Amino acid sequence: MMHRGPSPEFRERVLAQKTVWMGGAYDAFSAKMIERAGFEAIMTSGFGVSASLLGMPDAELYTLTENVGVVRNVVNAVDLPVVADIDTGYGNAINVMRSVREFENAGTAAVIMEDQVAPKRCPICVSGVETIPMEEAARKIEAAVEARCNPNMLIVARTDASSVPEAIARAKAYVAAGADVVQPISNTFRNLDALRALRQEAGVPLSLQVLGWLEQELAPVDIESVAGLATFPLVPLMSVAQVLQENLAQLVKDKHSRNLPHKRMVHHEFVSLIGFEEIERLQLKYLEDSPGRDAA
């Protein structure tokens, strides 16, 4: 397995706006499925990590170390660049410096940090969010840039500002502070023209979470006209949730698995997916008491 940490190729592609399409992972297994589907990179979704790890809402309830642990497992499970959602950076500018180093050490190719007050609130689930002063947020970006050891790791600055003019002003300030990419929220930018204005004013490619109106109304070519990173953050999580809910409800009702509404992956395909063949090869090679070693 070759781990794809910060690389000049990934950085150059994003900054050249040769859009990298990503799926949103919530654990190592979902990351493997995203890789298998053919996506070019993986984003660890804070919404998904909170739901999967804690069974709780995306309100920055998990800790820095818990998030880093999930991200490290994802990086170890796949051979794709991994972009990590690091929420607000878990504190002030000094906390951000440690956070960036921890995620870089875990092998991420990029981190996404937002300008909300900590602990954050998920903008797609609440009526409004509160942002920190623009100057403070810009200093946090400066600290993140200073803290990274590998300049190829991208710093993505997300702004949750509720008006287009403020979001554009913040994006420009964050780029001036050293951010490589900026990410708006879909609640603020409601059409493609507004996104194009943000792209032009910021002077760097956008990172877009393809959900809400972006998912329903924009064509891939529209997204590629402004974005260096484009992510479907919730489709994997919501797909699994729906299938589990329906299959388990039928299983409880029937007390057998013959009438499940959704097909299951067959056993041999699953064990191949998670790497049993490689483990068996290594066991035969290195473990003297492994059954079948002499025959091998």
TrEMBL record:
<dbReference type="InterPro" id="IPR040442">
    <property type="entry name" value="Pyrv_kinase-like_dom_sf"/>
</dbReference>
<dbReference type="InterPro" id="IPR039556">
    <property type="entry name" value="ICL/PEPM"/>
</dbReference>
<keyword id="KW-0456">Lyase</keyword>
<protein>
    <submittedName>
        <fullName>Isocitrate lyase/PEP mutase family protein</fullName>
    </submittedName>
</protein>
<dbReference type="InterPro" id="IPR015813">
    <property type="entry name" value="Pyrv/PenolPyrv_kinase-like_dom"/>
</dbReference>
<dbReference type="GO" id="GO:0016833">
    <property type="term" value="F:oxo-acid-lyase activity"/>
</dbReference>
<dbReference type="Pfam" id="PF13714">
    <property type="entry name" value="PEP_mutase"/>
</dbReference>
